[in-house]
User: Fold these one by one.
Assistant:
Number 1:
Amino acid sequence: MPLEGEFLGGGDEVGRLGILLKCPGARVLFDYGITASDPPQYPAPCPPVDIMFLTHSHLDHCGMIPWLTARNDINVVSTSISREIGILLMDDSIKIGAAEGYPEPYTSADVKIARRKFDEIQFGDTSQAGKMTVIAHSAGHIPGATMYELQGKRTTLITGDIHTLDTRLVAGAKPVKCDNLIMESTYSGRNHPARLKTEYAFLKKIEEVNQRGGTAIIPSFAVGRTQEILLLLKDSRFDFWLDGMGKKVNAIYLRYPEFVRSAKRLRQAVSRTHEVRNVHARSRAAQADVVVTTSGMLDGGPVLGYAENIRNDPKSAILLTGYQVEGSNGRKLIETGYMEFQGVSEKVNCEVLKFDFSAHAGHDELLAFAKGCSPEKIVLMHGDQREILAGDLKAQGFEVHLPKNGEKWTI
Ligand SMILES: [Zn+2]
Ligand SMILES: [Zn+2]
C-alpha cells in the first residue's frame, strides 16, 4: 500500500517542519517545529494523529510539540537527549516570545504536559507506528539526531537533518537501504569548504585578533554549534569563555555522553571553558581572548552586549560560525556593516567574518548519501533550492518528488 504524505510546513523552505504520513493503521507526524524568525512562522495546524516521532531538537523541528500534545493524547518518540534539549528550547521560546511581545502558541503548563508524553528510543531500537516497525538510526547532525526507518511492505527512510561527515561532536550518518527516501536538502546546490581548512583559518584568525590586542566574539547556536566550537578551542592556548544557553546545553550533553562522539573530549572541553555565571564574570569575559555566546545570528542574547562593547574596536572581531538566515541581524551585519542593538541600527567597525561550521550535509554529500540508500523514490524537503539537487538525482535515475507545503503526495 502506498504511503500518503503532506508537509504541514518545511517542504519547500528551511524551517517549521511537519511531515504527516498516513501509514497502515496509524496517522503519524514526524517533527513539528517553528521558524524562529521575526515574527515567528508556524506550520499548518496538525489534524488528529496517533503518534509523533521527533528527529532532533532544533526549534524548526520540535518547537510546536507542546501545542500538539495539549490537543492530542499521543506519545512523542525521541531520544532522551532530544527530549531534554527540546524541553529547554520550548521553555526558552516562551520567554523570548514574552520578551518580544509575540503571542506564544502554548504555555509553560503545556510544556510540562509535553514532557510527560515523550517515549524514549535508542539508536538501533524499534518502535511501532500502526502496522509499521520503526527503527532509529543516528543522523550525524547533532547529538541524538535521529533518522527513522519505517519497515512495512516497502521501507521508507526519513532523514530529518543529516550530516554524513564526522565532526568533532558527532560521527556522520550512514546510508540505510530503502525504497522511499524522504531527505532534507538544506544545502542543495552548495558544498562546504573542507572542515580542516575552515578550522585552521578560524584558529589563525583568533590568534591574529588576540595578537593585535583584540577579543574574538563567536556567536554560536547553543545546541550543537557551541559544543563543536568548544571542542576545537579545547586544544588551543586561548583563554575562552562561554555565555548564554550553551552552558545549559553543555550540562545536558554531559548527562547523555552516549550520544557524543567522544564523551572524554567533550568533558575536557567543558572543563577548560570558563562559564560566565554573573555580571562580574561577564566583564572579565569581555576582556578575554575569546567569548563564545548566543544567539548565533545576533538576534538577541548576551552576544549583543559583547558586540556592543567591541563595535568600535578595530582590533576585535565578530566571527560568525554558521549560516545567517535572511532577515537576521547577522545577515544584516554581513551585508551592510550595520546591526541592530535594542532596535537601533548601529555601524560596526570591528572586523566581521563568517566561517562555515555547518552541521548539514552539503550537495555532494546528499547525493552520495541518496545513492548509498539506493531508493526508488525520493522526496526532497527542508530546502529552498531543492530543484538543483533534484536535477542531479534525476540524472542518476531516481524518481524525485518536490511537494510544496499543503500538497498531498504518495510514495
Ligand atoms: Zn537541525
Ligand atoms: Zn532543520
Number 2:
Amino acid sequence: MLSRKITDGTEFVVFDMEWNQPMPGKEYPFDVSKLTGEIIEIGALKYVYDNGELIYQDTFSTDIAPVKYTKLHYHVKKVTHKKNADLLNGIPFKEAYTKFRKFCGDAILVGWGSSDPSMLKMNLEFFELDPKLNLFFLDLQPIFSLFAGLQGSQRSVEAAVDFYNIDKNEIFHSANADAHYTGAVFEEIFKHNKPSEVISAISSSSINPDVPSDFSFVGPECLDSISAFATSQNFMKDCPLCGKKLNVKISSFRIRKSQYALLECREHGELFSRTRVKKNKAGNYYAASVLRFATQNDYWLVASKKEEFDKFGEKGAPAPKTEEEEKET
Ligand SMILES: [Zn+2]
C-alpha cells in the first residue's frame, strides 16, 4: 500500500523549508534545472497522535549555508525578510539534513502544498546524497479544504490560520513560523472534527514520496476528439507501478472537455485519471492524460464531477464554472 495506517503513537513531523533561487540570466557551471532552489532553512514540529488528539512533542530548526546560490534572489529576500549576511550563519546542507532526518524518525511528514518534499529530494540528489526519504508525506492543504468545506480550492496557510482564528504572532514565510502555523492548523482540524474522520482522510491521502505518484500520457494527433480520447484508453488499463490490470471504481465518464475515472490497483491503491482532448496549431486533436495516486482532493473532484455528470450529462451544469474553479481542478 502507498498510504500508511495511523494509530495511537504515530508521530507527525510538520515541516516547512525556505530555499534560494538562481539569479535570472546568470550563468552557472551546472544544469540549473537540476537545482531550481537551494534549501536555506528547515523548520519543523513533532507531534504524536494519541487517543483522538495531536500532542506537541518537539521543535526542530536549522539554517543552511547555500554553496551554489550564495546571494539571495530578490524575490526570496522580499518574501522571507532575510539578508545576505544571514546565509553565513547556516550549517552545511548534509549536516542539516542528517539532523533533520534523525529528528523525523519514523514520523509522517506533513507540509502545506506538495513542493517541499520534491525540493528536498532535488537537493539530496543534486548534492549526491540518498534521495529516498523513507517517510510518508501528507499535504495538509487539501485536508484543510475538505474539513473547512472549501473542497477543490487551494488556500494559503495564512488563510487557514485566519479560518481557525489562530494568533498571528509570528511573521509568515520563515520556515519556523510556517511550520508552527501549519502545526497549529493541524491541531485545529483535529479539535473541530471527529478524529476518526480526520484519521481516515489523512491515511488515504498520505503518499510515499519515494515512488512516482503522477504519470502522464500525450496521445498522437487525431482528426476528431472521439478518436483522440480513444488513444488514451491503454494508458489507463494497467497499474503504472506493477503493470497489473486496474479495477474500475468509478468507470470513465466525460464531462465537457475532460474524461474522468477512478481506478484501483489491489497492491498500490486507488488512482485518479483525467484525460483532456486538446487541439494543436494544425487543428488536429490529441489526448493529454494524467494518472495519479488519488489524494483527498482527487476523490472529491471525481465524485463531484460524477454527480454533475449524472445530473446534467456530458455538457455539465448549465452555469459556467468560474475561471478560478477551472484552474484549481
Ligand atoms: Zn500496482
